[in-house]
C-alpha cells in the first residue's frame, strides 16, 4: 500500500468503532477472510432477519389491497390485488423455506429472494400503473408505489454486511428504479427522476454505513465470545464449533484434518512453587509461541486449564508431525526455575484413524496424549510413531 493510501486507510479505520482493530478492518470491506465461525453466526442472523421481514411483508402486502380497491379503477386494483397476493405467497414461501442452520451462501440467496420479490413487484406494478392516467387521490395512491425501491434500500440497514455485500444487494434495487424510468422513457420527468435516483444512492450509502457498523460490532462480539481471555486462544465452546465445521469440510472435500492434544508437563508445580500468576504467564507465553508458529487456517484452542488443542486442517499426520517438530525447535517457553516447558502431545488424523465424528477423533488424540504421559512425558505420540525427547535436535521416531 502506498503511504498516502495507507494514511487514508488508517484515518478511516480510526473512525470505526473502537472495538475493531487494524487487522480486522479489512473484513468490513469484503467477506473474504472472515473466519468460518463468524460466517456461521452471520448466516444465522441474516436468515433470521430474512424470515422476519418475509413474514412481515407477507402479512402487510395484501392488506393494501383494500386501499387500492377503494381508490383505484376496478380493473387496475384487481390486477394489483393479484400481484400482491402472488408477492405475499412468495414471501411466505421464503419464510418457510429457510432455516437458521443455513450456510452464508444460502443466507445470501435468501436475501437475494427477499429483494427480488419486491423489485419484480415494483417493475410489474409500474407497468400496470403506466397504462392508466390517474388523477387526484388515485394518483397519490399510485405514486406510493414508486417508493418501494426506497423502502428496499433502507431495509438493507438491518443486515450485518460488508461493503462489497451491500453494493451487491443495492445495485439490483437501484437498477429496478432505472428500469422503471426506461419503461416510461418518453413521458418521464427526467430531472425529478435523477433527483429521486440520487436520493436512493444516498439512502444506500447510509444503509451501507449501518450494515458495516453492525458487522463491526458483530466482529468485536464474536472475537470476545470465541477467545479465552487469558491466552487469546479459542475458547473450548468455540473450539467445538470450529472442529464441527472443519470435520464437515474435511468430509466434503476429502481433505485431511489433524488434531493435536497438548498437555503441559508438571504444570501444577509452577503454580505451587511460584504462584498462580506466574502459572498464568507461562500459559500465555505458550499460547503466544504456538500461535506464532501456526499456519493461516490452523486453530489453537484452550481446551481446559493447561490443555490445548491444535486443529490443523488440510494437514496429514506426517505434515502435523513436521509442524510439531518445528514447534519443538522453537520451544514452548521457560519455567521460572530456568527449565524448559515441555508438553505431552497426542496426534490423530480423521481419515488415517478412520474417525466417524470429531468427538471420536478428539478421544483418540487425548488417549495418545495420555500414552505420552505414561511413557515418560515430553513426547509426541501419533498413529504409528512416538516421537520423544521433545527438545532434542533430531526427533527419535519409534513404532508403538
Ligand atoms: N495458573 C493457572 N493454573 C491453572 C489454570 N488452569 C488450571 N491450572 C492448574 O493446572 C494444574 C494442572 O495440574 P495437573 O492436572 O495435576 O497436571 P500437571 O501438574 O501438569 O501434571 P501432568 O499433566 O501429569 O504432567 C492445576 O494445578 C490447576 O490448578 C489457569 O488458568 N492458570
Automatic annotation (TrEMBL):
It catalyses: 2 GTP = 3',3'-c-di-GMP + 2 diphosphate. Gene3D superfamilies: 3.30.70.270. It comes from the Bacteria. Residues 255-385 form the GGDEF domain. Its EC number is 2.7.7.65. SUPFAM superfamilies: Nucleotide cyclase (SSF55073). The chain crosses the membrane at residues 50-70, 76-95, 107-130, 136-159, 166-185, 197-222. This is diguanylate cyclase. It comes from Vogesella amnigena. The lineage of its organism: Bacteria, Pseudomonadati, Pseudomonadota, Betaproteobacteria, Neisseriales.
